[in-house]
Amino acid sequence: MDAEDARMLKILEQTATIAMVGASPSAERPSYSVMAFLQNQGYRVLPVNPRCAGQTILGERVYGSLAEVPGPIDLVDVFRSSDAAGEVTDEAIGLAEEKGIHAVWMQIGVRDDAAATRACAAGLEVVMDRCPKVEYVRLGARQRPSAPH
Question: Is residue 147 assigned to a domain?
């Protein structure tokens, strides 16, 4: 296993709670199936989408922003465009100490090198242009015990 794979595996195995920014209530959207998969692996996935705030996706209340998510967040999964990734990353950096955020994960096709540099400088791990569902399977990550809801 190369160093990048080992780093991603460590992130996945040290994560219990994921805030998924850009989660969709539509079962046809990739974020929906990724959220369902991650929940089935034992992660608590909290959807963040200002257009759906207050609704429920896969049994979890939708929040309008990362700041509105109650309790700790280990990983912020960015299911938004590359243009929006910087703003999401900056919000994660600003909340890292308060929420316990240790990683920002940008989905396949999402890259913002400047945002990644800022996040790394703030002590966060960053993964870009990868899907945690795909990497979980590919790397053989250990299934987490179910998180309380």
Answer: no
Residues contacting residue 81 through CB under 8 Å, at least 6 positions apart: 110
Statement: the pTM of the whole predicted model exceeds 0.85: yes
Model confidence over 28-63: pLDDT tens digits? 999 999 999 999 999 999 999 999 999 999 999 999
Residue with tokens 């969709």: 24
DSSP per-residue string spanning 32-59 = HHHHHHHHHTT-EEEEE-GGGTTSEETT
Q: Which residues lie below 8 Å from residue 64, measured CB to CB, with a gap of 6+?
A: 48, 49, 50, 53
- CATH code of 12's domain: 3.40.50.720
Please check whether residue 146 lies inside any domain of the structure.
Answer: no
pLDDT at 144: 63
- Structural domain for 129, as ranges: 3-139
